Amino acid sequence: MSTEQMLSESLKQQIRDAQQKLKSALPNYHNRPGQNKLIAEMANIVAGQYHRHDRIGLIEAGTGTGKSLAYLLATLPIALARKKKLVIATATVALQEQLVNKDIPFFRQHSEIAFEYNLVKGRARYACIERLKQQLIQPDLLTRSERNNFSILETLYQAWQQRSWLGDKDTLPLAVDDAVWHSICADPYHCSKNDKRHQHCPFHLARAEINDAQLLVVNHSLLLADLAAGNAIMPPPEDCIYVIDEAHHLPACGRDYFAAFAQLSQPSIWLDKLGQLSNQLIQSLPETSLKDLLKLDDYRNELLGLLKPVVKSLSDWQSRWFTETSQTEYRFEHAALPALWQTQAEPIASCALKTLAVLDKVSSAVGEVALTPGKQKSQSKLLQELSQLAQQLEQQHALWQLYAQPQAEPAYQARWVVRDEQQQLTAHACPLSVAHTLEQLLFSQAYAGILCSATLTVLNSFDHIKYELGLNDHPGLQMVRVDSPFAYQQNGVIVLPKMQYEPTASAYTDELISILPDYLTKDQGTLVLFASYWQMQQVAEALRTKGFSLLVQGKASRQSLLSLHHENCLHDKTSILFGTQSFSEGLDLPGKLLTNLIITKLPFAVPTSPLEAAMSEAVTRKGGNPFVQLAIPATARKLVQACGRLLRQEQDQGRIVILDRRLVTKSYGKAMLDTLPPFRRQIEY
Description:
Blueprint: H1 9-25, H2 33-47, E1 56-61, H3 67-81, E2 85-90, H4 93-111, E3 117-119, H5 129-137, H6 144-148, H7 150-161, H8 178-184, H9 202-210, E4 215-219, H10 220-228, E5 240-244, H11 250-258, E6 260-263, H12 267-284, H13 290-321, E7 329-331, H14 339-369, H15 376-403, E8 413-419, E9 425-431, H16 435-443, E10 448-453, H17 463-469, E11 478-482, H18 488-491, E12 492-496, H19 508-515, E13 525-529, H20 533-545, E14 551-552, H21 558-570, E15 575-579, E16 596-599, H22 610-621, H23 626-643, E17 654-658, H24 662-665, H25 669-675, E18 680-683
Parallel strand pairs: 1-10, 1-11, 2-4, 2-5, 3-4, 5-10, 12-17, 12-18, 13-15, 13-16, 14-15, 16-17
Antiparallel strand pairs: 6-9, 7-8, 8-9
């Protein structure tokens, strides 16, 4: 084995020294064997101790193991020594902010390891200062609504000049609505690096910093986008060590990213607009662009001709698909499209791509003209319209490219159409699995990869996540599980009160209303989690008539509710939060902010969405059982995440009440209970 594949003594010593310095800097630090195991295992995986080439690890690290500092200690020294870029990808903004604002600065300050780091965000998260400036230079050309926003834009520009604003959406100094942000955000058409005026725009400044940074923090979507674009932002995978945190989200995030949708109804509206713009541009662009403009118009006509038969077929199909007036979705079983659509799919995808390529060239020419004094404002408006039309073309290309892929039995895509209130139809396509794509773009190419989460296993097995991520055939794959150091037996209890009805019974909501008051402890922080928004509203309304004061999701912003809850708990008042699925993950309520967690019912997803229905259909076609293979694993993971809200620090205490008798009466109940942390159990059956 070559020296590079081994974890050398000098690297081991560097990791040990850095860990010692971090220990000294952490207040009330005590030794954590679990964290030591994490550091050792992750370092060995990345260094190639287990396998020379296949350096991949699935790491489940329970709450309180110090996962973030562990993976920084294990991977960064190796990345620096081997001149690789360390890329940390997270699923949530909350974890990104924690890493960039807290964990990484603390690590850099106290480990005494020298490195630069950078938070990488998508283009649309940055303002284009030149676009902003143009709106301020010629206020007379603004519409009435734009004039109302003039003072906001002025404040932003001053903040940028004073460097009190970084020019991105996440550090805005005041509230800015989506329409205003859209009018100033960076896009490829307005904010070209080749244009000198844009070289100091926030987006280009941020991208320039990437080259100097040894550690990059991204989200899952941006990581996938960059891999799909052939590494437009970050180095190629073979030059990167990846740490994918919250990795249980990656399969769903991948499905979302590689999905596509496009409007089918009335394509002539936006394609005619493209034609009008082409004619208009003949007057303002130099002769050298004439050939491209003529080509653009030819492709536009060709695309319209290809889409017309599809649109014409809609009137016949709609009456068959939408048999009830309330119906808004229709799914193509086994992804089988109408024959005409199958014939048209590849030509439409191809033509949309050709049109888009020419539109890009025309937009670049418009950008050049925009450099001419006095023409910036009119050309900026044109660029905005061209950008919107390019988005329409991108959507059509992505959708029909997916529709052009032949579907074997069972199909590997979900395909459906959605009808809105104006009777307009939008077509959708989504892959059922991204395992093969992740394998091709990431896992087979990466120098090394660590995928970690507090909830990677399902029913105490890594099999489900290995299948979802496409990691079944990796000879070097290491699976490591480190339990939480929390004293669950001493600090918490799971209570299963005797319930008369199952959640599927119509009388269950009334039973909830009747039994809940017995568990809403006074002068404590309580979180009640519901699987249904409708049921939460029903119960909240009934309990208010009984005199309960409640903080209910949807009645105010999440931040406002949490601030009120924090204030109540700080003064030892009764505080009761009601929330749905989004409150069961990523919500941090340490200490007395949460001592009483109530889960009304097991969070089974209702398989009504076209994607879930298609996934169930595919499992059935393979002779499997969708409930066992899809519903139970997904629910078990959500239940673990929900129970993870209770103990956030080692000294925390409290109880979890689960008002779902299926944990006792159904065959899968015991297995689900056994996946939960080892709290004391009080089962009243």
